[in-house]
């Protein structure tokens, strides 16, 4: 099941904004050279893909860490592993 946050990220018509980045010329040239090799129409699309990949990885990492801290806090408060596991299965629909 997709979260609402992920569903909104998949929406092609979501609001966009323009930003300005200062990037070394050699990096832009490398992006332009690599983009078609990766199947992208241009270097800006490749750059957005790199940003999205890194963002998804960090979001998952920090979410997993927060979840682990939450589970540890429940255990310190005496919540049995079986209850935590049952709640986890309920959340994932297993």
UniProtKB/TrEMBL annotation:
This is CopG family transcriptional regulator. The lineage of its organism: Bacteria, Pseudomonadati, Pseudomonadota, Betaproteobacteria, Rhodocyclales.
């Amino acid at each position: 099941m997709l979260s609402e946050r992920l569903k909104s990220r998949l929406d092609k018509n979501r609001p966009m904004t323009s930003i300005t980045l200062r990037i070394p010329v050699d990096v832009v040239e490398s992006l332009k050279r690599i983009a078609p090799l990766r199947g992208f129409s241009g270097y800006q699309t490749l750059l957005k893909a790199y940003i999205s990949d890194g963002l998804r990885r960090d979001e998952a990492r920090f979410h997993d860490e927060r979840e682990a801290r939450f589970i540890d806090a429940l255990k310190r408060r005496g919540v049995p592993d079986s209850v935590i596991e049952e709640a986890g299965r309920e959340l994932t629909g297993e």
